[in-house]
Each structure stands twice: as structure tokens, then as C-alpha cells.
Amino acid sequence: MTQLVTGEEMKAIETYTIDEAGLPAAVLTEQAAMAALQVLAAGRFDLSKVLVLAGLGQNGADGVALARLLHQAKIPVTLQFVGNVHRASQSVKEQLKAAEACGVTRAEKSDFKEPSLIIDAIFGTGLNADLPEGLQKMLKAANHIENTVVALDMPTGIDVNTGDSHGAALKAKATIAFGYQKVGTSRSLGKKMAGRVIVQSAGLITPNDFDFSIQ
Length: 215
Fold this sequence. Notes:
The chain contains 6 helices and 9 strands; from the N terminus they run βααβαβαββαβββαβ.
């Protein structure tokens, strides 16, 4: 049976992995990107032209790292930030430095009709308020085009705990869940928008006595 976790439980496991088990956050980012690459390389997705949509937080850092790994694997990939990259977290900036050193192509805007695959690395589990109006419009436009979208951890716009929409949500064909499936992808609109959920370890360490609220 698949173990479901809440956003708070996922945060606690990540904190334990970093602070108690001593695994650096940058290592977790690399593990998550490698886990996502493993899923994408399994042959179920068209990788002829990949667009990675990256946010400014940890989910964005995972996306930037994935863009670098795709580029290094000779897979055509373009990286586009959703938001002002100058306001990005330190983890995003560190990953971007490595991606640029490898020659990853960046775009300010993209025609969503062109990519064979879109990677949704915008918010992940970090969303707790309605999306900005401009982003809502972008997601709705992307859904009308019916691209193949793979979300990292959570489809953007879906609440990690309730599965409800924060104004709009990007519909994914599949969601790669790091560590555990988030409860929001099994409930309400989240179940529809997440598509097929694929759980990957990504190096997280869970305490033996961890008390999951959902059994």
C-alpha cells in the first residue's frame, strides 16, 4: 500500500534528513533530479524537446538540476523561470550557476505548443495561497494546449493536503513524488490533475519511529 504524507510530514522528514541524518540539502536536490531523470529516461515520454518550468523555491531547484542532467545526457532542453530569478532561493541560484556552466539554454517566454514534454517544477509542496492571476492565466492556457506535462512532487496549483485548487492548476500526465506520495494527489481535483503518480526515493531518510497521520 502506498504511504501518503501531508505537507507538514514531508517537511519534517526533509528536516530530519538534513539536520539529524546530516545529508546536505544540495545532495537531496541532486538525488531528486536523478530520480526524475530515471523516470523520464524509461521510455514512456517523448524527450525530443523538453521545457522545464522552474519556480524560485526548492521545487525550482530540483527542476534546474534536472534541466542540467537532461542537457548533460544530450537531451534537448530549455529552462524557463516562472518569476523573477533575482528573487530566487539560494538553492536555485546555486543550481542555476551549475546549469549555466554546462550550457543549459534559458528562455524568457515559450510557445507551449512546441515542447514534446513540459516539466512542472514551479511550486511543488510549497504552495499555501492562491496563485498570482498572471500565473493562473498561463496554466489555463497550457491546459488548453494539452501538452504532456510531468510534475515534480505536486502539480502546480494543487494544495498538498486537500487536493483543492489554488485558483488554477496545471494538469499533468504523471507526477514524480519524491519520498512519498503527497496526500493532495489522492484527493479532490488533485487526483485528476496529478495523473499517474510515480514514487521515487530521492535519498530521504525517515526516522524509524515516524508517526504518519494517514495509515
